């Protein structure tokens, strides 16, 4: 309880999401996709489940810009998604080891292909780290420095920007990637695909402008 009082509302939400993912993993065997561009199952110890091993592997690949809380929530989310996929395939007559073999050979058409991984495993979880990555990027982006040179004000602008990017990925990444899956053979990196879309570029441009305007309005109100 003490820890929860020290966390922001957003971080409390992330903690609860991580716990929910871990509870699901306790009841389902599964996988964690170790990186958004490839699935590389980690070696499994004799007394470890595959989901445990791959979840722990995920935790060792945290980007510098991402907080521990956000990263753990993302790991749990993607691991739970892969657990659900494996459970569905195992219940249809495949053994867990056979499912692992199919995942490793996804290019053969037997296991989940690249687009399935991008849309069903990665995409629903992208928003969990989007805030941290966008906030860090904003702090080092000269486009935002035109608004202010005051660190506290820049942090406020970047918070506005990062929340907007987080909300976009939470609500629009999956529908967009589902549409892309219907028209292209290989989506590739889902983050790159989303950010390269015309809709996102217009949204991001407007978000940059609106967060600068919000800072100007805050200054007027605080005079």
Topology readout:
Blueprint: H1 2-6, H2 9-27, H3 50-59, H4 68-91, H5 96-104, H6 114-122, H7 127-139, H8 142-145, H9 151-181, H10 190-195, H11 198-221
Helix pairs in contact: 2-4, 3-4, 4-5, 4-7, 6-9, 7-9, 9-11
The proportion of residues forming helix, as a percent range, comes to: 55-70%
The major sheet is characterized as: none
Strand % is: under 5%
Report the count of strand segments: 0
Tally of distinct domains: 2
Question: Unreliable stretches, pLDDT < 50, 5 or more residues?
Answer: 1-7, 22-49, 102-111
Query: What is the gyration radius calculated from CA atoms?
Result: 20 Å
* Span between termini: 38 Å
Q: Determine the number of helices (DSSP H or I, runs of at least 4 residues).
A: 11
Q: Choose one word for the global shape.
A: globular
Question: What's the overall average pLDDT, rounded?
Answer: 76
Structural class: mainly alpha
The topology string of helices and strands comes to HHHHHHHHHHH
């Amino acid at each position: 309880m003490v820890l929860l009082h020290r966390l922001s509302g957003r971080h409390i939400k992330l903690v609860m999401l991580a716990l929910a993912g871990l509870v699901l993993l306790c009841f389902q065997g599964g996988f964690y996709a170790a990186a958004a561009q490839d699935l590389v199952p980690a070696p499994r110890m004799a007394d470890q489940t595959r989901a445990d091993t791959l979840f722990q592997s995920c935790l060792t690949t945290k980007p510098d810009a991402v907080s521990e809380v956000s990263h753990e929530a993302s790991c749990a989310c993607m691991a739970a998604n892969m657990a659900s996929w494996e459970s569905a395939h195992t219940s249809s007559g495949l053994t867990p080891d056979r499912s692992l073999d199919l995942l490793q050979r996804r290019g053969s058409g037997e296991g989940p292909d690249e687009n399935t991984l991008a849309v069903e495993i990665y995409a629903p979880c992208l928003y969990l780290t989007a805030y941290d990555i966008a906030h860090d990027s904003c702090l080092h982006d000269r486009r935002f420095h035109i608004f202010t040179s005051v660190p506290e004000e820049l942090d406020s602008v970047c918070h506005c920007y990062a929340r907007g990017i987080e909300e976009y990925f939470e609500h629009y990444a999956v529908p967009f990637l589902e549409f892309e899956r219907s028209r292209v053979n290989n989506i590739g990196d889902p983050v790159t695909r989303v950010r390269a879309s015309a809709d996102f570029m217009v949204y991001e441009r407007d978000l940059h402008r609106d967060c600068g305007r919000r800072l100007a309005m805050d200054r007027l109100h605080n005079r």
